[in-house]
Design goal:
The protein contains seven helices and 15 strands. It has about 300 residues and is an alpha+beta fold.
Length: about 300
């Protein structure tokens, strides 16, 4: 697992880049950071060339792999921003929102503002600090393009107990996905790890970490399906990787399928059921379905939007 306070990027050196010093090459690849910043990362061992730390004067060769472990800098200091949030539930301990497509959960390289954390700080008086100063209150994540339920903790006790609920798999999650093909009902049990070649991707690998997703077909036409996906584990990109693994990638998924004419991949965190971490009351949260998915669900289900299977 990546450290919770950092973000990793993997890249391979092209023929055009061969001959460049590694600090200059990285500044070209990541223009939102300076050459001086990358020299600092190189000095503290946060840049690896083929798995080994190197000096800033190193000149990589074509095909070499570089791993960059980005570190927070003063530019990443958190700022409260007045960003509208669609609040599904809120009390003194936690808050749940319907995350829109395009919103990043927490500050990271290239996304130092406009994130869910910035919006939370603008809305809440306090957030649980957690172990990472850039992720106050955060207990789980959704991909940038994925919409739906996202929970954050307001107190340290709620933060710890919510993390325990996720770790113990006591969060019942239901996602909606529009995908290619017609997947069979059943359990996808395929370990997931980082792709050995395409390092920004995850993949189903024999030596990966345990990953289990329950798949239920809700509707189908000649080419596409509406799928109800219940992840029993919480691996990075899990549903997207598992649907690709069974030959039914999520519609619009540029990383694991094809972007086509869509603005994003059609995946929505629809429902979350759990025991309130403090009051112990049963919680059942539902995030309204976004319009772009409604269009496809109407094609597949008609005006009912498959309401009976979503109950």
């Amino acid at each position: 697992m990546d450290s919770p306070s950092t973000e990793h990027e993997f890249l391979f050196i092209s023929a055009e880049e061969e001959g460049l010093r590694i600090d200059k090459l990285l500044a070209t690849r990541f223009p939102h950071h300076s050459r001086t910043y990358f020299q600092h990362l190189l000095d503290i061992g946060c840049v690896l060339l083929n798995g080994e730390p190197v000096k800033k004067r190193t000149i990589p060769e074509e095909g070499d792999e570089i791993e960059v472990c980005f570190q927070a800098t003063p530019e990443a200091s958190l700022t409260a921003e007045k960003i509208p949030l669609e609040i599904l539930y809120e009390d003194e301990y936690l808050i749940a929102v319907n995350k829109p497509a395009g919103m990043v959960v927490h500050p990271a390289p290239g996304h130092w503002s406009g994130t869910f954390v910035n919006a939370l700080l603008g809305h809440c008086q306090e957030l649980a600090p957690g172990s990472d100063p850039l992720r106050p209150g955060i207990v789980h994540r959704l991909d940038k393009e994925t919409t739906g339920i996202l929970i954050a903790a307001k107190t340290a006790t709620a933060h710890q107990k919510l993390i325990e609920l996720f770790s113990a798999r006591r969060m019942e999650k239901l996602y909606l996905a529009i995908c290619h093909g017609r997947p069979a009902n059943g359990i996808v049990n395929a370990p997931i790890g980082r792709h050995p070649v395409h390092r920004k991707e995850m993949a189903a690998l024999p030596d990966g970490r345990e990953a289990i997703t329950e798949i239920q077909l809700a509707a189908f036409n000649d080419k596409t399906s509406l799928v109800l996906a219940k992840p029993r584990t919480g691996r990075t990109h899990q549903i997207r990787v598992h649907l690709k693994h069974i030959g039914c990638p999520v519609l619009g998924d540029a990383l694991y399928g094809r972007r086509e004419d869509l603005e994003r991949h059609l995946l929505h965190a629809y429902r979350l059921c759990f025991e309130h971490p403090i009051t112990k009351a049963p919680m059942r949260l539902i995030a309204p379905i976004p319009n772009d998915m409604k269009v496809w669900m109407q094609k597949l289900c008609g005006p009912s939007l498959c309401a009976p299977v979503l109950a």
